[in-house]
Amino acid sequence: MEGRPVSHAPQAPCEPQWLTQEEREAWLSLSAIMFQLPGQLENQLQRDSGMGFVEYMVLAMLSEAPERRLTMTELSSQTNTRLARLSRVVKRLEEDAYVERTTSETDRRVSICHLLPSGHDAVVAAAPGHVRQVRAAVFNRLNKRQVSQLAAIGEALLGGKPSSIVAAQLAQGTGPRA
Asked: Which residues pair with 70 in a beta bridge?
């Protein structure tokens, strides 16, 4: 990755544009965060609440949704989880009586995930510990300017604010409402 001179001249199609030293350091930092942070969040949730990060996110997104329900497609988008994995997660949450799935009355192909009262209680109980872990791992280490920069970097890499991206996807019909 490093050691090659940076050239701004057009390159042959097979020749990669090697990272500069600064880009390499930024990439290694981002890679370390991508690997370390999920484990920290997962460990805290497992230890304190007996649930994994994806389970927590499913319950949290449902708790914030209108009528505490989302289609599986919407839930997949909001949790950044593939439908196949989400289906397995939701099955486990159904077994714990935290959620239930139904079929849309208007389109039988659409599955809707509903947050049950016990699931709401579970996410409400898990949220304080999760927020403490997020603060300890991320926000307590940053000043206000860095938090703004982190948000801006996230928006640049994701192509917008996560909440706006989800809203746009829903508006385009990728997640039909029931």
From this structure: 113
